[in-house]
Automatic annotation (TrEMBL):
Presence of keyword Transmembrane: yes
Organism lineage: Archaea, Methanobacteriati, Methanobacteriota, Stenosarchaea group, Halobacteria
Protein name, UniProt field: Putative ZIP zinc transporter
Keywords: Membrane, Transmembrane, Transmembrane helix
Species assigned in the record: Halosimplex carlsbadense 2-9-1
Membrane-traversing stretches: 35-55, 61-82, 94-112, 140-163, 184-206
Length: 259
């Protein structure tokens, strides 16, 4: 499960633009193609928001999916993002960038919550804004993993797809109460473009960077994910589904650990 990505210049060749080949692992094909990850990330958001807008499943079901995704992301942020950075650039730099991600995105989430006028808007427009901003470092980090750790990228894709899909579902349900349905869908379409673009940018731009900056970006992304888990995902899930999210979180953790 735990694998350390070989740094650029020491066993990892430069990434060709858009070939979709995981050079270090030797894996090729669909599961190593960045466009698959970009498309799947976008599709999860679009399907989730559409279901939330036009079907509106029970909120406790939506919260359960949210908790499953949250448990999954705990594994990915620890083993696929922070631990390799911790080993490659050292404990103190990695810890500093990790805390930086927590501070930046924790503060941003608080600002978004205060900007929202009421609880419905907070779980609607506020959640949409949070997913859009948090999705950039998360998906960029996932794209960078494709240069040498396809299994890690796949595990992170699972967590992000479940979490972002359920967040978009919950947001779509709430936004549709106060906004025109097609406008809500258009907003999530914009977010889908942003996160998919972040995957491609992470794949093409990050791997050729020096080892230090790759570790810094991944540590920062891990902090951003943890801030989202603590500030948005778990509180929202618990409020809607109660103690049952404990089991759902465990399921997400175990499935991703096995991946």
């Amino acid at each position: 499960m735990i694998s350390v990505v070989a740094p650029v210049g020491r066993g990892l060749a430069a990434v060709p633009g858009g070939t979709g080949t995981a050079l270090q692992s030797g894996t090729s094909g669909l599961l190593a193609n960045p466009w698959f990850y970009a498309g799947f990330s976008a599709l999860a958001l679009l399907v989730g928001s559409a279901v939330g807008i036009w079907i509106s499943p029970p909120r406790n079901w939506q919260a359960t999916l949210l908790a499953i995704g949250g448990g999954s992301l705990v594994v990915s942020l620890a083993f696929e993002l922070f631990e390799p950075a911790f080993r490659n650039i050292g404990r103190y730099p990695a810890s500093g960038y990790f805390l930086g991600g927590i501070v930046v995105f924790g503060t941003l989430d608080v600002a978004i919550d205060r900007w929202a006028d009421d609880e419905t808007q907070e779980r609607g427009v506020g959640l949409w804004a949070s997913v859009t901003t948090d999705g950039v470092p998360e998906n960029a980090a996932m794209g960078s993993l494709l240069a040498g750790n396809v299994s890690g990228a796949l595990a992170l894709l699972f967590g992000l797809a479940v979490t972002n899909g359920s967040q978009s579902m919950m947001s779509g349900t709430n936004m549709a109460e106060n906004h025109e349905e097609l406008k809500v869908m258009a907003g999530w379409a914009v977010t889908a473009v942003v996160v998919s673009g972040a995957v491609i940018a992470g794949y093409r731009v990050l791997p050729p960077l020096p080892d230090y900056w790759i570790g810094a970006i991944r540590s920062f992304a891990a902090g951003a994910i943890l801030a989202s888990l603590a500030g948005e995902i778990y509180p929202d899930a618990y409020e809607e589904a109660g103690p049952s999210i404990t089991l759902a979180t465990s399921v997400g953790f175990l499935v991703t650990f096995l991946l």
